[in-house]
Amino acid sequence: xxxxxxxxxxxxxxxxxxxxxxxxxxxxxxxxxxxxxxxxxxxxxxxxxxxxxxxxxxxxxxxxxxxxxxxxxxxxxxxxxxxxxxxxxxxxxxxxxxxxxxxxxxxxxxxxxxxxxxxxxxxxxxxxxxxxxxxxxxxxxxxxxxxxxxxxxxxxxxxxxxxxxxxxxxxxxxxxxxxxxxxxxxxxxxxxxxxxxxxxxxxxxxxxxxxxxxxxxxxxxxxxxxxxxxxxxxxxxxxxxxxxxxxxxxxxxxxxxxxxxxxxxxxxxxxxxxxxxxxxxxxxxxxxxxxxxxxxxxxxxxxxxxxxxxxxxxxxxxxxxxxxxxxxxxxxxxxxxxxxxxxxxxxxxxxxxxxxxxxxx
Length: 361
Ligand SMILES: [Zn+2]
Fold this sequence. Notes:
Blueprint: H1 2-30, E1 45-49, H2 52-62, E2 66-70, H3 85-92, E3 96-99, H4 108-115, E4 127-129, H5 162-179, H6 184-203, H7 205-211, H8 213-221, H9 225-229, E5 232-233, E6 236-237, H10 244-248, E7 256-259, H11 265-271, E8 274-278, H12 289-301, E9 306-310, H13 316-325, E10 328-332, H14 345-357
Parallel strand pairs: 1-2, 1-3, 3-4, 7-8, 7-9, 9-10
Antiparallel strand pairs: 5-6
Helix pairs in contact: 2-5, 2-6, 3-4, 5-6, 6-7, 6-8, 7-8, 12-13
Zinc ion binds near residues 79, 150, 157, 262 and 283.
């Protein structure tokens, strides 16, 4: 009798616990707004983002003025997101649609057609292209989709470059100010705080306090930061004042690695790594046996120790190349939420740096 009772209690407890997990999971991203279109002080805007990384920034900028949702899960291939009817419903109710603004979300066209929400269409007040103003890398001279290449407007994985976040955040803030001018000063305050955090996390407090984030960002963008830091200032080299992620990754500069897909070009550009080849012959095209053989040759010839693979890819080719060459395949989530402990952009880059650092030689 006692046994049965405790079993029932246990089952009830389980139901209760899983129930509350479900509710808290839904609250974060499926949170329903209270009112539609245009917000005054107590009305919530509905913001829908294509990806979790944009949602993470939008939450920071919007503060308590919006409910922010996103479509693709953190562990999904961003090029190929199956367009579910529920996504079209989310977009139908959106005041703001935040997207890369390149061809990464070609899957969103069908959803936007179904959503029939004029306010969020390209060019309308509620449309935000986060890539506007980003220095896009790997631009393509002549777009040719016939071969299956999925990076026809240049490299769309802008979420991997910390300096891009500031441009993205500015675009998001501008979008919020347009649909909700009443709270513009809050969005500006949140934007300034976010950008300051990016600068301090990237360069460290000391340099930011001395020169300001804007100047350091410009130097970094022009690949002139380390030349600048090599100068003496009040009898000391400035390199000693570097902190943050750039200090943490100082030993990486000039090291050669390979990658599966062109996911991390903005990241490696920021931290001075060099990618000497990709396992995919072109972005979005699975590796042929011949191309894999060629890459095995490259890895052996150049004695490459590390291969970056976004964790949404099939792992067989990477494992096989590992076995044949001794290179270490590091599987990384490309987006916030790709693994549960990574809940914002800063944690995501922290995680990448930790993983790479413990495997790079
Ligand atoms: Zn891609």
